[in-house]
Design brief:
The structure holds 2 protein chains of 2 kinds. Chain A is α/β, with parallel strands linked by helices. Helices cover 46% and strands 12% of the residues of chain A. In chain A, strands 3, 4, 5, 8, 9 and 10 form a 6-stranded mixed sheet that branches. In chain A, strands 6-7 form a two-stranded antiparallel ribbon. In chain A, a hairpin with a 5-residue loop joins strand 6 and strand 7. Chain B is built from 1 helix and 2 strands. By secondary structure, chain B is an alpha+beta fold. The chains are: A alpha/beta, B alpha+beta. Strand 1 (19-25) of chain A pairs parallel with strand 1 of chain B.
C-alpha cells in the first residue's frame, strides 16, 4: 500500500509537470555525501534533489555543498506538509540546509516511541497508559516507577539476566530519547548570532534521573558489559517474547521486527520530564532519518525544482501519510482511536536538537559522549566541564562555516 | 472502510499539525477558480489544495539521490543503483 501511494504520487507529479522522476540509492549516508561532494566539485550536477539524514545534511551544508533552503522560492513552510518548527530550531545565522516534509517517511520511521506489552500491563494491573498520556502524566518519573514494579526471575537462577521478565528493556539509545523528550535544548543561540552549549539546572535533574533508571535492576539495560555483544537481540527479544513491559525504539521496528509478536502491544510517546512540561517531544534518529535539500549545483533550476518539491510534499501528505499510518497500524497495533491519537502526538512533535547534528563527534557521540557518561553515572558537572570548551569550539566553527558559505553566495 | 478511516486520520493529523505548530495555523486553502491553470485536485481527506499551477517542463528528468535508509519508501522497479 505504501509503495502504491508513492507510485501514485510520482505519477501525478510527472503528469502535472511533464517530467520524469528518477531515484538513485547511493548506499550509506557517508557514501552519499562523498558522491555528492564529487558531483558538486566536478560540476557535473547529476543530482537535483537530495534526501539525506539530518546529520549528514547539516554536515554537507556546512561544507558548502547545499543551498540555503530559506532562500528558495515556492516552498511554503506554513503548509501542513512541511515541518515548520524545524526552521527555527536548526537554523544557523538564519540559514537552513535542509527541510523536512511528508516526502520524508524516514523521519516517521525513525521517530522513537514507547512500546508497551498489553498483556504484562494487564497482569500487573498497570493503569490505563493512554489516559496517563492524555492527562499529561506520562513522565520520566512515571516510567521509572512502573519499571521498578515489574520483575520476574523466570529461569529461577536468582540472577538478573537476559532471560527474565523486566519492567523496561533498552539499549543506550534511550538516553538520547529521554534527553530530547524532556524538552532539553543542549545548545542556545547567543546575542552575537553565535551558538553555545546550554546546560540548565533541569539538565542535571534529567541526567541524574536517567542515570538512576539505567541502574535499576528491573531494567534490562543492554549496554551493560555483559549484554553489549547482543544488545539489540536482548532488549528487542525480551519485548518480542513478552518479557518486558516497556521498550523504547523507532516506529520502524513496529512495522518490521515486532510484526511476528504473538501478543498485542500499544504505543505511547516518549515520556515528558514532568507534568508541568506542556508537550510531549519525539526524538528522530538524526543518523537515520530523512530530510530534503538542494545541492548548490541546482541553483539555476531551483525555480522549477521547488515547484515540484512543494507539490510532491503536498501530494505526500495526501497519499503517503495515510498509507504509512495504515502500514504501521496494521501490525500488532489495533487500528483504534487510542493508537491513532498516540501516533498523532508522536509524529507531530518531532524535535531536531542541534546538539545531535553538530556535536555528534563529541558531546552527543554514542560511544564517548553523554551516553557513556550517563551509563556510567559519571558526575554530571565534572563531565560537562571536561567537554564544554571543545564543544563550544565546534559550534563556533560551524557558525564560521556558515559565514563562509554565505559570503560565497 | 479502512480507506475511510485513514482519510479521517489524515484530517485529524492536519488538525493536530495546526494545533502543534507543525504546519499552518491558517484556514485551509480553497481552490482558485479564477485561474484556469490551477490544479483542480483537492485532497479529499484534508480540504487543502496545491497552490502550484500546472506547468510543462518539456519532459525534463528530475534526479533524486537518497541513501539506503531512506530508500524504503521508493517502490521497487523505479529505484536504481549507479556505481
Amino acid at each position: 500500500m505504501l509503495n502504491d501511494a508513492v507510485f501514485e504520487r510520482n505519477q501525478i507529479v510527472e503528469e502535472k509537470f511533464n517530467i520524469q522522476l528518477e531515484w538513485f540509492d547511493r548506499g550509506s549516508a557517508s557514501a552519499l555525501s562523498k558522491t555528492l561532494k564529487d558531483d558538486v566539485l566536478s560540476g557535473s550536477a547529476e543530482c537535483d534533489i537530495i534526501l539525506h539524514s539530518a546529520l549528514t545534511a547539516m554536515t554537507d551544508g556546512l561544507s558548502g555543498l547545499l543551498m540555503d533552503m530559506n532562500k528558495l522560492p515556492h516552498i511554503d513552510l506554513d503548509k501542513p506538509w512541511w515541518n515548520s518548527q524545524l526552521r527555527e530550531r536548526t537554523s544557523l545565522l538564519d540559514t537552513n540546509y535542509f527541510y523536512v516534509c511528508d516526502m520524508n517517511v524516514g523521519t516517521w520511521t525513525q521517530s522513537y516511541v514507547t512500546y508497551f506489552s498489553k498483556q504484562i500491563a494487564e497482569n500487573y494491573k498497570v493503569e490505563n497508559l493512554y489516559d496517563t498520556v492524555r492527562e499529561g502524566k506520562w513522565t520520566l518519573e512515571k516510567l521509572d516507577t512502573l519499571t521498578r514494579g515489574i520483575y520476574e526471575d523466570l529461569n529461577g537462577n536468582s540472577q538478573y539476566d537476559e532471560n527474565d521478565l523486566y519492567g523496561l528493556a533498552d539499549c543506550s539509545c534511550i538516553i538520547d530519547c529521554l534527553l530530547v523528550s524532556s524538552g532539553l535544548s543542549l545548545t542556545a543561540k547567543t546575542e552575537d548570532e553565535g551558538m553555545e552549549v546550554a546546560i540548565s539546572e533541569q539538565f542535571y535533574q534529567v541526567y541524574d534521573q536517567i542515570a538512576n533508571l539505567l541502574q535499576a535492576p528491573e531494567m534490562l539495560y543492554t549496554d551493560r558489559p555483559e549484554y553489549t555483544a547482543k544488545r539489540d537481540v536482548y532488549d528487542r527479544g525480551a519485548f518480542i517474547d513478552n518479557r518486558a513491559l516497556f521498550f523504547i525504539e523507532g516506529l520502524y521496528v513496529g512495522g518490521t521486527k515486532l510484526r511476528d509478536m504473538q501478543t498485542e502491544y500499544g504505543i505511547l510517546p516518549l515520556p515528558k520530564f514532568d507534568e508541568t512540561q506542556e508537550n510531549y517531544y519525539t526524538y528522530s534518529h538524526s543518523s537515520h532519518n530523512s530530510t530534503v535539500s538542494l545541492p548548490v549545483t541546482s541553483a539555476q533550476k531551483s525555480d522549477m525544482l521547488c515547484m515540484i518539491l512543494e507539490d510532491m510534499a503536498y501530494y505526500s501528505m495526501d497519499l503517503i501519510r495515510p498509507a504509512y499510518y495504515e502500514k504501521t497500524l496494521t501490525g500488532k497495533i489495533a487500528l483504534d482511536d487510542d493508537s491513532v491519537e498516540m501516533l498523532e502526538i508522536i509524529t507531530q512533535s518531532t524535535v531536531y536538537e542541534p546538539a545531535f547534528l553538530l556535536l555528534s563527534n563529541n558531546l552527543t557521540n554514542g560511544g564517548s559522549g553523554l551516553r557513556a557518561a550517563i551509563s556510567n553515572a559519571k558526575p554530571a558537572a565534572s563531565f560537562i566541564e571536561s567537554v564544554l570548551e571543545a564543544n563550544n569550539k565546534i559550534l563556533a566553527d560551524a557558525i564560521e562555516a556558515v559565514r563562509v558559505n554565505q559570503s560565497a553566495e | 472502510m479502512m480507506k475511510k478511516n485513514i482519510y479521517t486520520l489524515t484530517a485529524l493529523l492536519c488538525a493536530a499539525a495546526m494545533l502543534t505548530g507543525c504546519g499552518s495555523s491558517a484556514a485551509p486553502v480553497t481552490e482558485d477558480t479564477t485561474t484556469t491553470s490551477a490544479v483542480t485536485t483537492e485532497a479529499e481527506s484534508t480540504g487543502y489544495t496545491s497552490s502550484i499551477p500546472k506547468q510543462d517542463f518539456g519532459g525534463e528528468t528530475i534526479t533524486f539521490w537518497t541513501y539506503s535508509n531512506s530508500s524504503a519508501r521508493i517502490p521497487r522497479g523505479i529505484l536504481r543503483r549507479r556505481s
